[in-house]
Amino acid sequence: MLKKIFIFYLLFLTVGFFNPACATFFGFISNPPTHNEEIDSLIEVARTVYSNEEYKKSLQIYNSIVKLSEEKNYSKGKVIGYLGISGAHYNIGKLDVSTLYLIKAREESYAKNNPNILYSISVREGLNLHTIGLYDEALKKYRESLKIASKLNDKEDRIDKSYSVYINIGDLYQLKKQNDSALYFYKTAYNSSTRDLLNKFVSSASISELYSEKGQLDSANLYLDYSKYYSRKLGTTYAAALYKEMKGKYLIAKQEYNLAIESLESSVELNHSIQRSNPQLFRLLSEVNQKLGKEEVSTAYLKKYVHTKDSLESIRKQNIKVPILLAEIDAENRLEKAESHTKMIAFILLLLLAIVSSLAYYFIEKQKRKGLRGKKENHNLKKKLNNAFEEVVELAETNSPNFLSRFIEVYPEFYNQLITEYPKLTTADVRLCALMKLDFSTKEIAEITFSSLRTVQNRMYKLRKKFNLSTDEKLNRFIQSFHIETLTVKS
Question: Which pTM does this prediction carry?
Fold first, then answer.
């Protein structure tokens, strides 16, 4: 899914000139300069080049910015340069290097008291984890960035940043095949008051894709038209490539295969022009040509799909060690600095302690996952239960149309196991099970759903039959105890 990359466009266009709060540390560090005309001008050039998708050229400029900033002890220049270098390396799949520069940026004085920069770093750390398939870890980073964004003073900036993260969270749920949750986040972002065209474009394209997969073609076409409008407004190659991909998927759903091939091939060319790989395009082209009986063409695209996917998988496996590798590299660099900068020993020891703590936490969590998974789940449940449970109960009590989708998001394992074991359950059945799972009585369910007590009792009787419960088994008790060991809360 191409849309994950979009966040970098937003970040480079929104990281502007901020007033850094430069604190001293025990008198060891003097206040660095807050402005440098030469470097600030170079930063603007780099941003323009990056926004024009000239990543290699922008990388050269950002490297120059870092070099000049280090010579002049210009913290702002170093931070912006590190973020630029991180983004460029993300685009070529070097997530280890990308994350290293995020760590460097986070340690600068300009970043530490600047919520806009901290937001950018947190989102990018999440995106790196997102890309290598560490979805739960990525979600934690995205939620961290939402907390930072909520503290921004500028209301419009706060909205833009928050809903750009919503889109990435939606993509996480889509990758996890939780499409109802994904649609919730995409639509929330699209219907928000965000002024950012990229937010509107990516959310509308994503909604169109989900509706195409569901076969709801009128809705898919409506949001596809929205995405076309915003794609043209943006005028970037990335936007054009993503629009063509979503149009191709829509045309496949309509069984207009020749037009679909034309659109998908256009997306391949556009991605190639910005040096991006998307193996799913080759898979789709292989499948469509197969439907048209073009066996040779289908086979050729299938080979491209396998080759590209294997290459990306190889890169992903190399990057899976990113957290440990970067901690080791950072520790080595700090030890070298300690030898030549004796005044910084206390400061470095504190940072080394943080790194060691991170490594210890990583290995402890690894052991817990192997032998103590149940204990970890219980801990997470206790930690997250209050807020998530109260939110779901409130939606239930107000008979909100968002109740069921939010319940599924909070209790995905319970929901997935329920519909897997009992696939004939209707949406109304699942909603009734959800209310019983939250321990609502028959009378309370009747009041919430504006139904008579007899109606709810009849629905429960039919549900008992679907579960094949004996006469001495209580339905509420069955639902309460249904696969409780798999229950987790996703707040």
Answer: 0.58
